[in-house]
Amino acid sequence: MLYGRTTEQERLTQLVAAARAGCSGALLVRGEAGIGKTALLDWLAETAARADAESGDDGRELRILRVTGIEPEADLAFGGLVQLLWPVQGRLDALPEPQAAALRAVLGTGAEQRGPDRFLTGLAVLTVLADLAEDGPLLCLVDDAQWLDQATSEALLFAARRLAAEGVAMVLAGRDDGFSAPGIPELRLTRLSFEDSSRLLADRGRAPALRSQVITESAGNPLALIEFDSARRDQPHQHAPLPVADRVFSAFRSQIGRLPERTRLMMLIAAAEARGDLPLLLRASELLGVDLGDLEEAERSGLMYVMDGTVTFRHPLIASATYQGSVLARRIAVHRALAEAATDPDCRARHLLAISTGPDQDVALELAEAARRARGRTAYAAASGLFRHAARISTDQEQRASWLTEAAALALAGGHAAQADLLAEEAGPLTGDPAVGARIASVRAAVVFELGDQSEAAHGLLARVGDAATPGTSGMLRTAAAYGWLAGDGDTVRAAGARLAAGGCSDPLVEGLERLCEDDAEHGLPLLARFLERRLDAPDTRDVDEQAVRMLALTCGMILGDDEAALDLASAEVRWCRSQGLIGELPYALDVLAHNQVLAGRHRDAEANVTEAEEIARDTGMHHRLARLAAVRARIAAIEGNAQRVRELTDGTPEALCTGLDCARVLLDLGLGDFDSALTRLTSPPPGPDRYTWLSLSTAADQVEAAVRIGQPERAEEALRHFENWARAGDRPRTSVTGAHWAQAVVLRCRALLSDQPEHYTQALHLHEKGGRPFERARTELLYGEWLRRARRRKEAREMLRSALTTFERLQAEPWMRRARSELQASGDHLVTARMLADNLIDRLTPQELQVVRLAKDGSSSREIAAQLFLSPRTVEHHLYKAYPKLGVGSRQELVLLDL
After folding, report:
1. Which InterPro entries does the entry mention (predicted)?
2. In angstroms, rounded to a whole number, what is the distance separating the alpha carbons of residues 573 and 567?
3. What is the strand order of the sheet 25-30 is part of?
């Protein structure tokens, strides 16, 4: 029976009831040791099972999966996930193959997975839970979550955050510290009131006169109430001034200390083994001269249970008290016996680690092998720890450097950049091997880059390379140039290029970036075009050691102004990430894709991709990505005239990351007619990389229009000259990259504004007809329509303005719609104010519904859509069910007929 938990029981009951109704949910039960988390989970499991038995509904019985974190296994890769999924491993065959392969590797029933994304396992867990829920509601209970290994914790939380309509209830229980689950609702357990404590003691037969002292000492902690009550019966005059948790721990140690020595040794073996594996315990105990019979006294006292081939402590604190109450020599002897008796190499490695008190190369080699196995299962944090331990006890200094470097790289892959930096720094002085040194430099640079300082990352690589490139360092120099470019650091780009040239190495990417740093677009852009052509020829070629270059390839088309190529590259990258389950790489690819979709006028698609990217970035700890994603939302809000939304996005972004948001504010000011403010925000960037970002280029036309509007055209001359040089160079013939016709059209529009010569408008519109950037075309039509109206060519003006208004309406560009309508009224079109906006079907859908509907329209099955969007098939069906009425259809077949 539980005391004082009525509210908590009701909330858990509602969670399970929702799962029975097909609605998933997750909850974290948090509280101090002994507060009753395990008791609450036991009650929930028992209550749910009893409800099933009483209902008699055999077709939809609730299934319960349970896992308990084990403190000594916190470094054992996927130990918790194996415990959870081992009973249902037969369901793996129903998963998409990449996911099934990832879980087989975790369970040790398949080949190792070399280098898959670490979040693919979380997606596989989500899919298998959803698949199990197809047979009936599923209750997943996770106890002592603070002791789960990190790989298991990441996978479970990734799945928990994506539960929606599968019929899965997940309840995690963890202590106040040591376990973080952002995005999961929490239920915090408090200590019992005096009344509830009294009821508990009364039911244990404690007389009223004797209850007060126990309640005072326990401070309402349920476990403390029970243990202190028992201790008072044995030692009525015991005093304990220690904190509650320490007093409970001390009580357990005292109780253990009164047991026979052979019993204490057998308990120590069980505590050190931790998993309750009876065959292993028996093999180890035989080596130490004890046996199962020596546990009788511990069972009789209620400290331990032996049943169904498993040895279990009544409470984790008893195991901790047993282990910590033993002397070091005895603990080492027990771990040595367990290592000798173990048949699982990872289990053996864990016990070898526990007995390593000094240098031992043989043990180091075994730990390194265990690390490689963990790495093959994408348990990067566990693999990093094992490589680190192997390095610390290795007697070979070069081997230590190599293992520490690998530990650093894996820590970075596992999302622990600061730890990776410390490990790489430790490895540096240990090696004279140039290859290892280069690897260390690359890892440290990647760490700094991930932390947001691209310039420092570039300098770190340059410092490692000599005055001239060699075959072994040319890749580092290319990465340094890429980092420098992304940081706006032209000096670093030039330095990398100079060293490549000194070594006789040719690289069109670095040479092109160098030229642009010198403001030589005429020669720089064709070099970048050559690099881009290679990527278009082989878009799925990837080099994991040159992440920055891959990122730059996605933006290369944007630097060139070739929207078609940029959109193709970004779409290919997103497809690749989805097909391979590369969740960690997906946010950047979605970011670039969304930017290009905004340029193509596909605002709702862009918002859907940004929403997904933001969710993944939060889940995977890539918080610096959120500011860059905010720039996409801000540009859409600026076009639509949503000043409040632009302000909200700007206020929540660090100053150093506000470039994209500043450009959005300029566009907002321009749309709202605040030309002074728009021009004040605009300053010409200095020569170098910043001049060739798509943001800087996109504001040139804004600067010209604002300057002309306030009668100060000279303030836009430099920006226009730079933009015109870029547009002219960007239109040079290339074999794979089409010319940026939209850019030449915008140049002509700017010339028309400055010269008041209408032929520039007509030439611009001719180029706009070749495609690209509908918003820019509508702006040209609006300005030309205004000119035509002023020239009293009203019929032509109305035709031009109506075309502009149609585009603005589709884009929901409210300020620009008002300008177009006002001009139409002035030109004699009095019906425009009564015109209703066309109903846009996709505006009825949420971002995720839009993604699901588009994929369904293209013929993808629910399971295929789920794999691409990192959802469960049931959630996909849920989104379709909600989307059909909004679109006025009833099936997938009818979706094909819609223009989405």
Report:
1. AAA_16, P-loop_NTPase, Sig_transdc_resp-reg_C-effctor, Tscrpt_reg_LuxR_C, WH-like_DNA-bd_sf
2. 10
3. 63-68, 138-143, 168-174, 25-30, 186-188
